[in-house]
Design a protein that fits this description.
about 300 residues, Rossmann fold, three-stranded antiparallel β-sheet, eight-stranded mixed β-sheet
C-alpha cells in the first residue's frame, strides 16, 4: 500500500496478472478560530483588536507548522457577534468542503472575553442564555447541541478568554465531559488573560495598552491601526498588578520587543498556565507555546 499526505492507494484485489487499486482520499481538516467582533460593555474597553490579532497570529503559526498542508488543512478565523453563531458557522464550512465525510474538525479556538460560564458577547444576547446572564451561552441546549464533527484523534478546543480553565468544574472541564467533546482536549485559561508578544511570558507595550484600554477614543483608534505592525499577539494568563512589570520600555534592552532573548524574557512575568482536560479528566497544565509559538514549527 502506498500513501501521501492527501490520499492512500490500497490494493483491493489481485491475481497473477491483474491488480485492482482503489484511491482512498484522506479527509480534509477544518480549523476555525473565532473572535468576538463587538465593542465591549459601556464602550469603555475594546478588546476587538486583541481578539482579532491573536486569532490571526494563531492562523499564521498554524500555516508555518511542520504538519501543515494547505491542501488538507483549511484554516479560517471568522468574526462573530454572539456565541451561538459558532455551530452554524461550523456547519457552513463543513458543507462548503463537501460534508461531514469529506472534512473533519481538527481545532476550534475562541478569542473573547470570558468568565466561569465561558466566552462572552456583551451586546448580543446568546441563545440559549445562561440563566440570568444572556452575555454567555448555556451549556445545555447550547454548547452540548453543537455538531463539531471532530476528527477521531488529536482534536483540540481552546478558550483563550479569562478564567475558562478552572479545575475542578470550570468551563473547559465541564465541556470535556460532554458527549460532543468526547476524545477532544479542551483548554482554558487558569486566570485572567492579557495581551502579549510571547506565549510563555507576558510582554506588552504602552502603545498596545493605549489601543486596548481605558483611553479616550481618539487615542485608542489611532493605536489600534498600528497594532498588527508591532508583532505577534497572544492572549496569555496574568495577574493583576503586573501591568507595569510586563511593559516593554523602548531602549531599555538591546533587542526590540518582538526579538527578546530567552534571558531578557526572564525579566517579565511568566504567563500563567492554561489547563487542559479530556473526557472529564484533568490532564495537565502549561503555557500555550507548546502548540502556538511563532518562534517554533509546532
Amino acid at each position: 500500500m502506498s500513501s501521501s499526505n492527501e490520499e492512500t492507494m490500497g490494493k483491493t484485489s489481485s491475481t497473477e496478472k491483474n491488480i485492482v487499486k482503489q484511491k482512498i482520499s484522506r479527509p480534509k481538516e477544518l480549523i476555525l478560530l473565532f473572535w468576538i467582533d463587538e465593542e465591549d460593555k459601556n464602550g469603555g474597553y475594546d478588546g476587538r483588536t486583541l481578539f482579532s490579532e491573536a486569532a490571526q497570529t494563531r492562523m499564521e503559526n498554524i500555516k508555518k507548522s511542520s504538519w501543515y498542508n494547505e491542501k488538507i488543512h483549511k484554516v479560517h478565523n471568522p468574526p462573530i457577534q454572539a456565541i451561538h453563531e459558532i455551530g452554524p458557522i461550523i456547519n457552513n464550512w463543513t458543507s462548503k468542503y463537501g460534508g461531514k465525510d469529506k472534512i473533519k474538525t481538527r481545532e476550534i479556538g475562541v478569542f473573547s472575553h470570558a468568565a466561569g460560564d465561558g466566552p462572552i458577547s456583551y451586546h448580543t444576547a446568546n441563545i440559549p442564555p445562561v440563566t440570568g446572564w444572556p452575555v454567555q451561552m448555556a451549556i445545555t441546549g447550547g454548547w452540548d447541541a453543537i455538531d463539531f464533527n471532530w476528527k477521531e484523534q488529536g482534536a483540540i478546543c481552546v478558550f483563550y478568554g479569562c478564567n475558562t480553565g478552572h479545575n475542578p468544574e470550570g468551563f473547559a472541564h465541564s465541556l470535556s465531559k460532554l458527549s460532543n467533546f468526547s476524545g477532544v482536549t479542551v483548554w482554558g485559561q487558569s486566570t485572567s488573560a492579557f495581551p502579549s508578544f510571547y506565549p510563555n511570558y507576558r510582554v506588552t507595550t504602552v502603545a498596545r495598552s493605549a489601543a486596548d484600554g481605558f483611553f479616550p477614543n481618539i487615542v485608542r483608534k489611532t493605536a489600534q491601526t498600528t497594532w498588527d505592525l508591532m508583532g505577534p499577539t497572544y492572549m496569555v494568563g496574568g495577574n493583576s498588578g503586573e501591568g507595569v512589570k510586563s511593559t516593554y520600555i523602548f531602549g531599555s534592552l538591546t533587542n526590540s520587543v518582538n526579538q527578546l532573548t530567552d534571558e531578557e524574557l526572564k525579566s517579565y512575568p511568566p504567563a500563567n498556565v492554561l489547563k487542559y482536560f479530556q473526557n472529564g479528566n484533568y490532564e495537565g497544565q502549561t503555557h500555550q507555546g507548546v502548540f502556538n509559538d511563532h518562534r517554533k514549527t509546532n
